[in-house]
Amino acid sequence: MPLHTAYLPPLSWFDTAQKQGYIELEAFEHYQKGSTRNRCLIAAPNGVQRLSIPLEKGKHQQTPIRDVRIAYTEKWHITHWRSIQTAYGNAPFFEYFSDELAAIFHQKTTFLYDFNLLLLEFVVKKAGWNWEIKATPEYRGTTEPTHDYQPKRYAQTFEDRHGFIPDLSVLDALMCCGRHIPLI
User: How far is residue 159's CA from residue 140's CA, in Å, rounded to a whole number?
Assistant: First the structure.
């Protein structure tokens, strides 16, 4: 069953993909408010921080996910990149990934689905996962990550302040663990 597109999805999303051995994205669903399609969670100095991509009006009117446009009336992409730098600038693998990741954030992609796909391809490549990424040819529905997902612990950047925070964005594990992302 396909997964929904997601903005730097949580580890539980990737755990589901790992069980399938590939990533199939539902390309014909309608945008769903309040989901990870345009939101992610990172570990920041003051605790969990939610990053939300602003979208253009009309997103709630049965708009297919591939047609949802990112709003650039605010410089959210710069704010998100600065938040990522603050959160992971001292992480062990930040310097290995930061230039390529910054380039993705600064290219002003028009559609949310395409932006998420660029980030997904980046993560899969940098994590060393040999997974095919494909889009559904028609609407097939989505599978949701299991709620009983229990990630392996790994050293997080602000663990000394906030303890281990499970199921953050895959970005957290990538910056802290490099290619050795602990899924199960």
Answer: 39
